[in-house]
Structures are given as C-alpha cells and as structure tokens.
Amino acid sequence: MNGIIKIWTITTGFLGRWKAAVFVFFVLTLTVTFPLFIKPGFVFLLDLAPTPQPSPTQWGIVGNSAIFNYLWMFLHFLLPGGFLQKMLLASSLFLAGFGMFRLGVHIRARGTNNWGGYFAGIFYMFNPFVYSRAITGQWNIITAYALFPWLFLSLLYFFKRSRFVSACRVALWCTAIILLNIHIGLLALLMTACVSFFAIMFSCIQSRRRGIKCGGWVAVLFAVFLVVNSYWIGPGISGKSTLGHFAEQVISRTDIFSFFTRPDPVHGVFWNTAAMYGFWGDEDQRYVSQKIFVSHWFYLFFAILALVIWGVVVSVRNSFRQRAFSHHQDDEVEKRPGYDKSGDSRYLLEFWMVLSLVLTGLVALFFAVGVSYEPFKSTVLWLYEHVPFLKGFREPQKFVALLVFVYAIFSAIGVNDLLTRIEGIKNTKFLWFKLIAPGFFLLVPLIYSPGMLWGFHGQITPAKYPASWFAVDRLLQRDQEDFATLFLPWHQYIYLAFAKTVISNPAEQFFSKPIIAGDNMEFGPIYTQSTRPESKYVEQTILKHKADFLTKDGKGVLSLGRTLLPLKIKYIIMAKDSDAFNYTFVENSQDMQLVYNSAELAVYENLIFIGPTQKPDLSPIAPVVPFVHTN
C-alpha cells in the first residue's frame, strides 16, 4: 500500500497543475477505446490489417516512415501486437485532446478558467474528421494529427524567444509528424511556413534588424529539418523515391476525380467540408455516418462556427492591446492555488499570428473542397498539375485536419471569453446559469460527434486470425525450395469473414514465404495503379485466361501449372471469402492438387513445379505479357 501511495504521489507531483486535465482526457479516451481492450485480438479495418509479426515491407523499409516502422517492429518484441495497436489509437486520442487543452489554456486571452482549453481539447478529439479516419483504419493520420497542438506550442516558444534549441524543437515536432504520415506532415510544414512568413513580414515592418533576425532563425529551423530528414528528402529530389515516382507518374486526373470531397445532398460540398465532413468513405456505406446519429448536425456546426468566429474577433481585438506574444500576468492569476510563475504563462496571439492562422484555415478549406466546388475547380486543377507535392493529395479531404486545428484554437479563445463574461455577472438570479454554462459548452462537441463513443458504437471490434492461417504458414515453411505462392481471390481490399469487413489484403505480410497477392485498388473507375510486373502478369496472363486452362475432364487448351512457372509459383492459397466462386479454375485444373483444406483456406500445389536450376517448359501458356523479374 505504501508503494502505491508513493507512486501516486510521484505521479501527481510530476503532472502538477495538469493532473485534472490528464484525468479528464484519460476518461474520455476510455469512453472510446475501452471496449477494444476488453476483447483480445487485432482490430481489422479498411486500411488497417495488422499481422502478428510485422515486417519493414508492411509499410516500407525506406522513405519518410522508415524510422517509425522499425520502432514499431521493436515494440512488437516487447508487447502483444493487438494491445500495441489499440494503444496507438488510445494514445493518439489522448495526445490530441490533452495537447489541444494545453494550447487552449496557453493562449487564453483573459480570466482564470480553463474551460476554453477543455472545449478545444474535447472538440479536437471528437469531430467528424477523426471519426471517419479512425473507423476506416487510418490511425497513422490520427496520430500525426494529434501532434499538431504540440508543434504549435513549440512555435509559440520559438517566436517568443528564438534560440537554436527552440528551433530544433520545432523541427523535431515537424519530423515526428512526417514520420507518421507524409500528407499530414506536409500540412504541418504548410502551417509552419505560413506562420513563419507572417512573422518575418511583420518583424520587417517593425524594423529591418528584427526582420533579418527573425528570418535568420526561421532559416535555421528549416535547415535543421532538412538535415534531420535528408535520409528521405535526398532520394526524393534525386528521383529515387518510390513515393515521389508514384505521385508523379501514377496519380492522374482520374484519381483526383475519384477521391473528390463528397457533397451533402442538402447543403452542398462547401458547407459539408466546412463542417468537417466530405470524406469519400462516408458514402461508401462501410460504416454508419455520424449524420445518422445527429439529425440536426448542421445547426450544431453553426454553433461551433459561431464560437470560432467570436474567437477570431476576440483575438484581433486583443492583438492591438499587446505586443507580439506578450507574456503577462495579473494579480488574480498569481493568487490562484497552484500557480507556478514559471509555468502559468499565457500568450496573446498577435495580429500577424491571428492572420496567419485564419489564412491557413482558408487555404485548407480551399484545397479540401477542391474540384468538387465549381468556382474552385479550374484553379485547383492548375495547381495540382504545376505544384509537385500537391499531386500527392489525390484525396483532398485530408486538408480538413488543418481546418479542425484552426477551429479548435479560436473556439478555445471564444469559449474562454464568453465564460469569463458569464462569470462576471453579479446578479445572483443568474447563479444557476453561471453553474451550468461550462457544462453546456463542453457538451456541444460530444453531441456533434457522438459516433465515436464506446468503440464507435460497436462498429470496431477486435478479432483473431483463424488457426488455419497459421497452419498454412507452417506448411509453407516446411517446404525448403525456392518458390512463390499466389494468394487468391485477387484483391487489394478483400472481404475476410474472420475480420467481418473488407480490409487491406494481409497475405503478403502474414505468411513467412514470398506471397503474390492482389494490389489492384478497384476504386471507382480505377482498377489498379500497380506498376509491379508480377501483378500485370497475374492479371493479364492468368486471370484473363482462366476459362482457357485445362480441367480435370480434359476441357481447355492452356496449362495453368506451366503458366505459373515464370513467377516460380508452387502453391496457390485460396481464401474461401469474397468472390472465391469466380476462381474455380484452380480446383478444376489438372495441374493443381489440393494439399490443405479448412473452412477458411484451401492450398493447391502446382504438380509441374520445377526447381530454379531446371529450365521450364513454358508451352502451352498464354503469351500475353512477357514477365521480367525485378530481383
């Protein structure tokens, strides 16, 4: 008991005046994620297909995410994969809420209450953007998004007191975000660049010397970022980056018009996007749209927007009363219990900072709406074709992440100002109103986005890989020959019964031996964007001619076994899900023998497979696509 008390004392002492907020956001995090922890297994979602033993190839061994990927692999040696995966979502939500609370308290313009910070934190955790991204499995985006407030706090310190350490801090926060997701990382850089530009410009207006000094420190900041990230920026500039090649050579107008931001049938695309909706998954019917939970969502959004606008008005008004980032204290704050002169500093956003944030929000809204809004369409298309990195944002609704961040900052200031005014009411008849007002404000974001509560209303439930998957993996491991295995049905996104939903095909990462699985997107008019030679061979030489392969009763003219030889395919794994009924040519082939069968998987062996030292007889096969091995 004494040990527990000692740990509690140390913990509360470390948290200091933040312990109440830590408790609040910890509880809020549990209201979302607790159902995930009480059931063992992995969470399977559209873009989330974890495996028991992840490999670097699951996310890529090079590129911006390489460091995070290796760290994730290391953590798998220490913690169970399912628990680690759930902790990622839980910690992301907590960091988002608590980080925005810290920022909201830091920039409050007046009063001693923290309600504006609590409102901003809850709103930043619970909103349509987070809901849609989380329920489709884009948890790396949520984690990167959660670090925005921490980045902005470091920017505040940097422009208040520019030093090398503070420049490094900003650069490292940008790096951490870009490690998690390249798109959100670019948005973080956009925000940092916008704020820095206005800082330099307004410093130059004050004096040339101050402008040069500010510009110099900003140059140091970005120089540190470039040095730290040179391991992936260098290959990108030299043309050796896979991601850069994909954005330049593969992404086209077809992508832009396939992943466009969706409009609301009543309110159109502009207001739908401003309300933080518009994600393509909302109309894909893979999950319940939050609009089903809240029929009057549009009116609630305008209540939030009113708080944001009021926050902008308050910020502009106060910015003319104080110097940039003026550190101020008042007697009322100093008398507050637990006040720490070194840690209770507050900063008024100077006019240039307010202007840069408003501009950032408007730019984010412009690109998020994108080609879906006719007045913006031609300009957006021109920018996509002439600004290189923009092409990577084929799905423009990601820009809403910045919009939510700007909303949260100004809503914190707006709520804080309104509640401070309410606290100042002297008439005792309004005491009840003063007591319920904070709770009323804090309920608004929860009512606006209730779909996240309790495991997204049961829409996210953990599951386990069936025993048959592990049995098949052991079967493949026992074969010591050099071979590949084809996994069918051929889909990048496949329905698997144990996951109870369509997920990203996990076969290549799950099995220990080389697997060739579908990487065909099948989204709208886009069938595939794969440039892999193996995929082209499978699609155009095997699947295209599946009706022509020789069957056990002598029908057909082509040999399936020989057609598989150029890819060194010895086994075919057939998942008995999705459209497996379209792949009966495998079990009917005279060249394939069933060697394993279960309720979930069947494994067929190529009877005419030969070792790598023998020259294969490639006749008769379908001579459609000459295969060139890339190894």
What does this structure look like?
- The chain has 28 helices and 9 strands.
- With 631 residues, the protein is of the alpha/beta class.
- The strands form 3 sheets. The chain has a 5-stranded mixed beta sheet with strand order 6-3-7-9-8. A two-stranded antiparallel ribbon has the order 1-2.
- The longest helix is centred in the N-terminal third of the chain and has 26 residues.
- It is elongated and about 95 Å long.
- The termini are far apart.
- The C terminus is likely disordered.
What keyword list fits this structure?
disordered C terminus, 9 strands, 631 residues, 28 helices, alpha/beta
Quick overview:
The chain has 631 residues and is of the alpha/beta class. It has helices at residues 2-15, 19-37, 66-78, 81-106, 115-125, 128-135, 139-146, 148-160, 164-180, 182-206, 208-228, 230-237, 242-250, 253-258, 268-274, 290-293, 297-319, 331-334, 351-369, 374-386, 400-423, 431-448, 453-458, 467-478, 507-510, 533-542, 560-564, 584-588, and strands at 327-328, 346-347, 484-488, 493-496, 501-504, 515-516, 569-575, 592-597, 601-606.
